[in-house]
């Protein structure tokens, strides 16, 4: 029997962006500063094992004093704030069924603790969602995508402070109520498990707010507060917009053991929990039993209030979404070897895989395996909401961009998604990352391009910002038009 897997009818093909990497207009429309707005561009020669930002309060204040002498690429993005109509029209031409964006919290509550929202910010997203609806594109909206108000980081210690839970809940309820007739798919926190690697970017914690020996405790306390905030958003969505669906989102990583040595296998199991812990709590509604030992061994004592556990149990997500760029290799502590870069993580190099220009290991079949693992574990709809290849693109004299490497990468991952659907996985959609070139999250550069649409802009914000189609534009257009049959 010749079995041919197919994507289901109504599959949500599209792409994904974030507000902080695309909108720009950081000081327009009443917007406040976010934690992303003070992340500087780092010259390539200065990166050399560059660490993720983890500034102190004093460093933030010093940055703000001397901001005229620095480059903050996420402040100008790609000017989506003014060009959204043009950009959405290009996505319509691509055939998008869905477009994942995020709302900038600081456009709605500029400092984060106001009692009344900023109407100008609300009106902007009304216009964006109306434009998407006009073109038949389904909005998929992330509530928090690394863009919490800087004020909450400086004055409230970010997600370390339980007060932030209710401030986020006010924000979430405000936008869910405002857009209940325009948005049917919501995501709470982008890549929530990134807080293990990036406490500033994900939790808004500054380096001087917690002693180094207490950092792990702080991360999991912040995680508990985000779990509560996620549950409050779920409750609000189900109450205000019962026909809508709201999901969680994690960095999707599959961890392979370095060898068949039993200790390597167990190391991979433990590392896999850096993903599954976060989906376990949000999709099952309770802390998994394996955390008891982990918390005890690391002297982690979560501060909970009565009713927290019951609230988490009552308000679980409707679907699980995740990003997928790479896999990882795990080993027992005494094993050393060549390391490789990755999406907020690094690890041992896998000799069976090729890597991107930035050293991220390319593993399409890992996506199929991870989809099966999620499906077997939760029996909930799954949504791949980020996947793509960051690469250097060269513009030819006639303005064209030939990017067969991007087509090859995406084709191989989409084929493995199709195989996963054939395995019985309930996959509802796929939004590739950065369909229009945007400012890289990890390095704040434009040189690292993901898009089907080229943006004429360099790392410093110079250029016309004109949009033009790459070869991959026409390829992905055909993929969508044939529901994944022509790859």
UniProtKB/TrEMBL annotation:
Gene3D superfamilies: Glycosidases (3.20.20.80). Keywords: Glycosidase, Hydrolase. It comes from the Bacteria. One of its GO terms (molecular function) is beta-glucosidase activity. The active site is at residue 386. The keyword Hydrolase applies. Pfam families: Glyco_hydro_1. GO terms for cellular component: cytosol. One of its GO terms (biological process) is carbohydrate catabolic process. SUPFAM superfamilies: (Trans)glycosidases. Belongs to the glycosyl hydrolase 1 family. NCBIfam families: PRK09852.1. This is 6-phospho-beta-glucosidase. It comes from Paludifilum halophilum.
């Amino acid at each position: 029997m010749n079995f041919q897997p197919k994507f289901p009818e109504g599959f949500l093909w599209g792409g994904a962006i974030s507000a902080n990497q695309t909108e720009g207009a950081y000081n327009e429309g009443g917007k406040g500063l976010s934690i992303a707005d003070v992340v500087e561009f780092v010259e390539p020669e200065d990166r050399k094992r560059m660490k993720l930002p983890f500034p102190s309060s004093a460093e933030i204040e010093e940055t703000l004093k001397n901001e005229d002498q620095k480059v903050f690429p996420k402040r100008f993005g790609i000017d989506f704030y003014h060009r959204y109509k043009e950009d959405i029209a290009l996505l319509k031409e691509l055939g998008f069924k869905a477009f994942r964006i995020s709302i900038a919290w600081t456009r709605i509550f500029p400092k984060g603790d106001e009692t009344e929202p900023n109407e100008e910010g609300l009106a902007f997203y009304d216009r964006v969602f109306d434009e998407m609806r006009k073109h038949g594109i389904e909005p998929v909206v992330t509530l928090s995508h690394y863009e919490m108000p800087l004020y909450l980081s400086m004055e409230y210690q970010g997600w370390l402070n339980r007060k932030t839970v209710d401030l986020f809940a006010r924000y979430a309820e405000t936008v869910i109520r405002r857009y209940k007739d325009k948005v049917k798919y919501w995501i709470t926190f982008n890549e929530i498990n990134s807080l293990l690697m990036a406490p500033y970017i994900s939790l808004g914690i500054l380096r001087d707010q917690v002693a180094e020996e207490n950092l792990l405790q702080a991360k999991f306390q912040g995680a508990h507060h985000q779990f509560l905030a996620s549950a409050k958003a779920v409750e609000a969505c189900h109450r205000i917009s019962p026909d809508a669906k709201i999901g969680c989102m994690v960095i999707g990583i599959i961890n392979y053991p370095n060898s068949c040595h039993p200790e390597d296998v167990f190391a991979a199991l433990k590392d896999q929990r850096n993903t599954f812990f976060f989906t376990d709590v949000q999709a099952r509604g309770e802390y998994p039993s394996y955390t008891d030992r982990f918390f005890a061994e690391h002297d982690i004592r979560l501060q909970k209030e009565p009713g927290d556990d019951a609230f988490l149990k009552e308000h679980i997500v409707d679907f699980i979404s995740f990003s997928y760029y790479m896999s990882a290799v795990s080993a027992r502590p005494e094993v050393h070897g060549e390391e490789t870069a990755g999406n907020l993580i690094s690890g041992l190099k896998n000799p069976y895989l090729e890597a991107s220009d930035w050293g991220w290991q390319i593993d399409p079949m890992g996506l199929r395996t991870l989809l099966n693992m999620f499906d077997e574990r939760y029996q909930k709809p799954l949504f791949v909401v980020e996947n793509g290849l960051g690469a250097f693109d060269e513009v030819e004299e006639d303005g064209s961009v030939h990017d067969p490497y991007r087509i090859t990468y995406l084709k191989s991952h989409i084929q493995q998604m199709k195989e996963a659907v054939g395995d019985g996985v309930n996959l509802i959609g796929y939004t590739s990352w950065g369909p229009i070139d945007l400012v890289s999250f990890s390095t704040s550069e434009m040189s690292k391009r993901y898009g089907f649409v080229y943006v004429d802009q360099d790392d410093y914000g110079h250029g016309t910002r004109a949009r033009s189609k790459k070869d991959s534009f026409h390829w992905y257009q055909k993929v969508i038009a044939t529901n994944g049959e022509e790859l």
